[in-house]
Specification:
Elements lengths: L9 H9 L3 H4 L1 H17 L6 E5 L2 H7 L4 E4 L11 E7 L8 H11 E12 L5 H15 L12 H10 L3 E14 L2 H11 L17 H13 L6 E13 L18 H5 L9
Length: 273
Amino acid sequence: MTGQNQLIDRKALLQNRARRVTQQGTFLHDLAIADVRDRLVMVNKSFKDIVIVTGWADPWAAAFPEARVIEDTDVLDLSVQSCDLIIHALALHCANDPVGQIIQCARSLRPDGLFIAICFGGQTLQELRSSLATAESQITGGLSPRVLPMADLQDLGALLQRANLALPVADSAAQTVAYPNLHALMRDLRAMGETNPMTDRSRRFTPRGLFQRAESIYKAEFANSDEQLLATFEQIFLTGWAPDESQQKPLRPGSAKMRLADALGVAEHNLKD
């Protein structure tokens, strides 16, 4: 991609990350780390050469001290078939070429190596996106990109197959967080380094009253019984394996040794013409 066609302004993204607050901004990383650990326990396989791709190294390096942690640059610091396990940690949503990121990881796995990605899904901040869009359209009659668009589960799952990973699995988990007001939510997003990094973001002054109007809409449509603002954070988990002869493969058509009717214990009837 050329700089003009890129969704993400990499310089702005790095500036946002540089302003993060460690004490406040890691709770979603902590949840992701706990989930990854559970998944690795279920895999029941040891991994020797582990790489973690992320924009926030500290919590992941602490959780997996045996791993090499690399930055989520457009061209990843990886070598072909050099890893047993690659974890792409909460950075895929802000990649200009997410399928390229997964393909690079897939090529760097040894046969039967495991790829796990955790990224934000399309439900993330849907309440904030809707409230800001409604408020801005009411005040200015137009819209500016203010919340990063994120892919849904089906689209992200398809990327695993495009990267030629075997046994692909995609699932998601949504967390709902309550905030006393819009300022508290925005403060948390700044602490996470997740404020707007889009290339097409507005550089003009924010219209007067936009955030006040957005908070009013937010409270009317997305508040709980205590008038707290509810914010959704959807984490999508992608899992795939580098192909290997030892892996299970689907049976060839016509290779079944038992009729379906026999397996189900029912009578078989011919269809009428």
